[in-house]
Design goal:
The complex is a heterodimer of chains A (112) and B (521). Chain A is mainly α. Chain A has helices at residues 2-20, 25-45, 69-100. Chain A has a single domain (2-50, 66-100), classed as Helix Hairpins (Orthogonal Bundle). Chain B has 19 helices and two strands. In chain B, strands 1-2 form a two-stranded antiparallel sheet. The chains are: A mainly alpha (112), B mainly alpha (521). The A-B interface holds A 20, 25, 28, 32, 35-36, 39, 42-43, 45-48, 70-71, 74, 77-78, 81-82, 84-86, 88-89, 92-93, 95-96, 98-100, 105-107 and B 132, 135-136, 139, 142-143, 146, 150, 155, 158-159, 161-163, 165-166, 169-170, 172-173, 176-177, 179-181, 183-184, 189, 362-363, 365-366, 370.
Chain lengths: 112, 521
């Protein structure tokens, strides 16, 4: 499971960074989204990977046996915030596309 | 948690967000009412900040949100550094807001709400004692700042805003990686608890915490625009509307504050003492050099002011990296003065630019959305101009120049002198010499271009009409100048206060005790 998760995070992050360095704004937006996935999985994994651990809610569960709720809460917060800000980024992206007539990150096509 | 005074610490967070919520309920056309509410809110914030400055003279005040004890609940901690930064935010905010009342608050929708949310985020970041809570406040502050950067719209703002948002989203991801690494290895996110647990960590865990702190450091250095992570700052601040740029000047100082806070708290003593200091010194020195070159090359005043913001951030980072307490105190004193002066410079730049070059608004795409906000308004909008505006503007400009360059007789000089004497008091290492040399050169490098701008703006005869200063704009500039003057006149007391602030920072044990052991109330 560790291998699968770390490969997943790695592939997400690598694709995200690659897209982030591309010249089109939409690619940057997608890159940010993929990087966010990678980071969220990473936060989640910081609660340690365990199979069949009950959630903290279950009555009578032994404290060491339950899964750590804090990273789950952190992921939830980070998810919401990054989702909202990506949406905002998309709006600005569209405005930039409309106002400059180009979807290049510099706001103008290279060489012009 | 009995008397009302105990709740003073939470007021700088709760009040602006409540007022911002109220703004949403009000019709956009009720500008007068909105202006009154925002002004009153920021004025109360200023009073609160001053009360906190008084209240924290003897030690940190801790507010346990919801009555939960640390480290399980979230705490807000006001100590001398936080209180100073709160007061700085409130003064700058009050002046920027007053300035905006001349016309900028009507340049686009929801200016007041965004402004108050930004204030709330900044205040929260200064107060919080929890790393993840810090992230949340950072995001509130950044989300509001995205709106403020784009306020007034136009092509340059949208272009600059696009880069600004992308860079800060990436910085936030670094922040999250750092925070989760620290939680995964140390098992806590409460700053005071972390400071206690760090020395006990062994082997891999200790290494992972260091990695986490380094990643966090990258995030904060991006926010305080340290070289080479700060190329986003000058175009963004120069493009933003004047009142937004003035309040954004505090934003990069939030990054500086967090670096100072975490470095002294987590790595003030113990086996890892001095972690990252050499990097901070190098980054700070490079930032000052880059900012000085930038200000020399700047073609307009707003851009020069943006580079001045960078220089003042770099100064504090370098002073922290040099590892000398008195030098850090001097740098903090300089930070307060230079932030106020840079804010005033942004406002001045707008007044001087107005009417000289036509607004660079882009082609309208959506019917009424993106247009020059002042297309259909002439200068009568500003109303009731102040007489003798050129003389007043010239005087304010000279004042800001002296503050930023750190020349006598103003507070900038006091701060720089305190830094030099602090550095000279210890054994003069090559790094201390480098810092002294670079600071001296940057004084000259700030003075020359600013004086050149001044000569061009005020002395060169031209056919352009004289700049017009509205009454609100004049009040804002006067407020900033008076704050700087107060800092100069009570420079001795201010420096003594800064010294005590740094003493407090140098004793992280007291901070941890106040947060963790003062509980059970």
């Amino acid at each position: 499971m560790e291998i699968v998760l770390s490969l997943g995070i790695g592939v997400f992050a690598a694709s995200g960074v690659w897209l982030l360095l591309r010249p089109r704004t939409f690619q940057v937006a997608l890159g940010l989204t993929l990087l966010t996935y990678a980071v969220n999985l990473f936060i989640f994994s910081m609660g340690r990977l365990r199979l069949d651990a009950p959630p903290v809610l279950e009555a009578g569960a032994e404290i060491p046996a339950v899964s750590d709720p804090v990273p789950q809460a952190l992921v939830l917060t980070a998810l919401v915030i990054s989702f909202a800000l990506t949406a905002l980024f998309l709006v600005v992206l569209l405005a930039a596309r409309g106002i400059t007539g180009s979807d290049h990150v510099d706001g103008s096509e290279p060489g012009r | 948690m009995s008397s009302a005074g105990d709740h003073l610490v939470v007021l700088p967070v709760v009040l602006p967000i409540a007022a911002a919520g109220l703004m949403l309920l009000l019709d956009e056309r009720r500008t007068g009412l909105k202006a009154v509410i925002s002004l009153a809110t920021v004025a109360v914030l200023l009073a609160t900040a001053l009360a906190l400055v008084r209240g924290t003279l003897e030690g940190a005040e801790v507010y346990r949100v919801g009555g939960w004890d640390a480290p399980y609940g979230i705490v807000l901690v006001a100590d001398r550094l936080s209180a100073t930064m709160l007061a700085l935010t409130a003064v700058l905010g009050l002046c920027a807001l007053t300035f905006s009342l001349a016309r900028w608050d009507r340049a686009g929708p929801r200016f007041h709400g965004l402004f108050l949310l930004l204030t709330m985020g900044v205040n929260g970041a200064f107060l919080t004692g929890d790393l993840f809570n810090l992230f949340v406040f950072f995001e509130v502050m950044l989300a509001a700042s995205y709106g403020l950067v784009l306020h007034g719209s136009g092509e340059t703002r949208i272009r600059a805003g696009l880069t600004y948002i992308a860079v800060n989203l990436i910085a936030s991801l670094f922040f999250l990686i750092g925070v989760s690494l620290i939680y995964g290895s140390a098992g806590t996110l409460n700053m005071a608890d972390l400071a206690r647990r760090l020395p006990a960590l062994q082997g891999t865990e200790a290494g992972l915490v260091s990695v986490g702190c380094a990643v966090l450091g990258i995030a904060f250095l991006i926010k305080c625009s340290a070289w080479p992570l700060g190329f986003w700052l000058p175009p963004t601040y120069a493009a933003a509307s004047a009142p937004s740029a003035a309040i954004l000047a505090i934003l990069s100082k939030v990054g500086v504050y967090v670096v100072v806070r975490l470095q002294t708290l987590l790595f003030g003593s113990g086996a890892e003492a001095g972690f990252g200091l050499s990097w901070l010194l190098a980054a700070g020195l490079a930032t000052i050099v880059y900012g000085t070159i930038g200000i020399l090359a700047a073609r307009n005043l707003a851009r020069a002011a943006a580079y001045a913001v960078m220089i003042s951030s770099g100064t504090v980072l370098a002073a922290l990296g040099a590892g000398s307490g008195p030098a850090l105190a001097g740098a903090l004193f300089y930070l307060v003065g230079s932030t106020l002066a840079a804010g005033a410079l942004f406002l001045l730049a707008e007044i001087l630019r107005r009417g000289r070059d036509p607004a660079t608004a882009g082609q309208a795409v959506f019917e009424d959305e993106y247009r020059d906000p002042f297309d259909d308004a002439d200068d009568t909008v500003i109303r009731r101009a102040v007489p003798a505006s050129v003389a007043i503007l010239g005087a304010v400009f000279l004042f800001c120049t002296l503050m930023l360059a750190g020349l006598p007789p103003l507070a900038g000089f006091v701060g720089k002198l305190a830094m030099f004497s602090g550095l000279a008091a210890g054994a003069l290492s090559p790094s201390a010499w480098a810092l002294i040399g670079i600071l001296t050169v940057s004084s000259l490098g700030t003075l020359v271009p600013l004086v050149r701008f001044g000569v061009l703006a005020f002395w060169v005869p031209s056919d352009d009409p004289d700049p017009v200063v509205g009454r609100a704009e004049f009040m804002a500039l006067a407020g900033l100048v008076v704050a700087c003057l107060a800092l100069t006149i009570w420079g001795g007391a201010g420096l003594a206060y800064a010294d005590r602030t740094v003493e407090g920072l140098a004793a992280p044990g007291d901070y941890a005790r106040a947060v963790l052991d003062g509980g059970a109330r």
